[in-house]
Amino acid sequence: MQFDAELLLLAMAPVFLACIGWEAWHLRRTRPGARLYSWPDTLCNAALALMQQAADKLAWLAIIPVYAFVHDHYRVHTWQASWVSFAVLFVAQDLLYYVFHRCSHRVRWLWAAHVVHHSSERMNFSTAFRQSLMYPIAGMWLFWIPLAVLGFAPTQIVAIVLINLGFQFFVHTQAIGKFGGKLRWLEYVFNTPSIHRVHHARNDRYIDRNYAGVLVIWDRLFGSYVEEDSHEAPVYGIVEPLHTYNPLKATFHEWASMAADFASVRGWRNKLRALFAPPAWAADYHARRVADPAPITLDTTMNERNTAAFQTTRRP
Question: Where is the Fatty acid hydroxylase domain (predicted)?
């Protein structure tokens, strides 16, 4: 099956914009006090999307030859264009997207790019446009190399990645509730707005869950699925709020923070943590620095400092 995914997404652009317009009108009419859209936030999302698209165009020029080299020299199979090959490509890429997405929440280097998508405190269709131009630097493209090994050509890899991301636009909304009745089965197979709202929430119950791209079966299989609870509304944003609508600050704030932490901690073990530990390490380190500005050394682990700080705060 051959298709031009870039042309397909370009043709879908009016649909995306129409969805944003409808959702903004619908939510203003049905939830007037919620302020689920704001011009500064939406314009920031649009600017981030344009920056990311420009960066991706340049990045693909360097990355596609890498895929081509792997495909030409290391592929294990040659696929004929068919619905079967498309199905294999679709499922394989969606699984790899799950791996990438989960790693992006557990490895700070990857999170430095992905945090852009989560830093808005609103959840609406325009949030889907909130992407980072730093994904190529973070290494997102490395996760698709196995597709070349499986025997898929670079154009097919790029196409399926774009299709997967295009689908995800439609799960960034609060205007659609959980599917019930005859549509309930969708919540067991596909990523849905309800499932993805959980993913964008920073509540303790929801944080770092539901990494699905298109298929939610991976979350259910690997234990990362949590259902949206009608008694606990998602609270959107990140643990360390951004407090700006500047797209450049949204893009680079975590990279700057990571560099500062790398410079301030002592010992290579801690410097590696500053780059590759889960993002929670950084949030905890920043909280500890506020309470005690002394730099962390290899002899004073984060857990030891956590215990000491906790005991200090518990003293009468």
Answer: 86-224
The Cα 179–Cα 11 span in angstroms is 28
Across residues 137-146, what is the average pLDDT? 98
**What percent of the chain has a predicted confidence (pLDDT) above 70?**
91
pTM (two decimals): 0.90
Q: What dihedral angle (degrees, nearest 10) is formed by the CA atoms of 224, 228, 229, 232?
A: 100
77, two tokens: 């199979």
**Which two three-digit tokens encode residue 73?**
């020299």
Mean pLDDT of the chain: 91
Dihedral angle, C-alpha 37, 41, 42, 43, nearest 10 °? 150
At residue 311, the pLDDT reads: 35
Q: Are 132 and 53 in contact (CB under 8 A)?
A: no
Give CA angle at 209 (204, 215), nearest 5°. 160
15 pLDDT tier (thresholds 50, 70, 90): very high
Cα angle: 228, vertex 229, 234; to 5 degrees? 70
